[in-house]
Amino acid sequence: MTNTESGLKLGMNSDFTVFDQMVLDPELTATVPRDQYFYTGMDAYIHCIEALAGSYRNAVGDAYSRETVNLCRQVFLADDMMNDESRERLMVASYLGGCAIATSYVGVVHPFSAGLSVVLGLHHCVANCIALNALGEFYPTEHREFCQMMNAQGVKLPTGVCAGLTDEQFTALVAATVVHAKPLTNALGADFRTVLTDERVVDIFRSM
């Protein structure tokens, strides 16, 4: 969901989204294309590495985040990320990752991902992966692990997604990224714009 007036990409997170019951069924992911399975599963991983690297932390969120990351490692560094056991683990990781981020904030990756989604129409989870791949300077250890996971599973990311864009499109990408002040403050502090100048944001997008 996008607030078309502000350009802010929104989530669904309120007292009304806490369900009385849920059905978690790993069989529902048995026939998902491998790359899409990876991109979607990595959303849980990215949520939690951002939360653990931020300033808005708490014991409950940290516990959820650490276990989510641990489960994602078991899935994406395994020989087969889509066998029955891995799909069960990823199902639990996805649930716990949602619990984690409900008590915390994301960081640098999601605002850049939001820019890709709002301006270029890329789907959220693949946009997250493209963004993390370009943001190794902010998450060096996690970026290395992410690359290990991609290599282990033979997953390829789209490249050149920002090639040939106009100045107006880059301006829109900057605006759609820096509008997400809460996660960027979580990651970089209240003066995040001194780090993410317009020029730096454009350079990062050009590398995607």
Layout of strands and helices, then pairs:
Blueprint: E1 2-3, E2 8-9, H1 34-53, H2 59-76, H3 84-102, H4 109-120, H5 124-134, H6 140-153, H7 167-178, H8 181-188, H9 192-195, H10 198-206
Antiparallel strand pairs: 1-2
Helix pairs in contact: 1-2, 1-3, 1-5, 2-3, 4-5, 4-7, 7-10
Q: Which descriptors apply to this entry?
A:
2 strands, Dehydroquinate synthase-like, alpha domain, two-stranded antiparallel ribbon, about 210 residues, about 60% helix, single chain, mainly alpha
What does this structure look like?
By secondary structure, the chain is an all-alpha fold. The protein has one domain: Dehydroquinate synthase-like, alpha domain. The chain is 61% helix and 2% strand. The chain contains ten helices and two strands, in the order E-E-H-H-H-H-H-H-H-H-H-H. The protein has helices at 34-53, 59-76, 84-102, 109-120, 124-134, 140-153, 167-178, 181-188, 192-195, 198-206, and strands at residues 2-3, 8-9. A two-stranded antiparallel ribbon has the order 1-2. A hairpin with a 4-residue loop joins strand 1 and strand 2 (8-9). Helix 1 (34-53) packs parallel to helix 3 (84-102). The longest helix has 20 residues, at 34-53. It is globular, with a radius of gyration of 17 Å. The protein starts with a strand and ends with a helix. The mean pLDDT is 94.
CATH class: Mainly Alpha
| CATH topology tier name | Dehydroquinate synthase-like, alpha domain
* Global geometry: globular
Main sheet summary: 2 strands, antiparallel
Uncertain ranges? none
Rg, Å, rounded: 17 Å
Number of continuous helical runs: 10
Spatial gap, N to C terminus: 23 Å
Q: Report the helical percentage.
A: 55-70%
Structural class: mainly alpha
Q: If you average the pLDDT, what whole number results?
A: 94
Multimer state: single chain
Question: Looking at this structure, what is the CATH superfamily?
Answer: Dehydroquinate synthase-like - alpha domain
* CATH architecture descriptor: Up-down Bundle
The strand count comes to 2
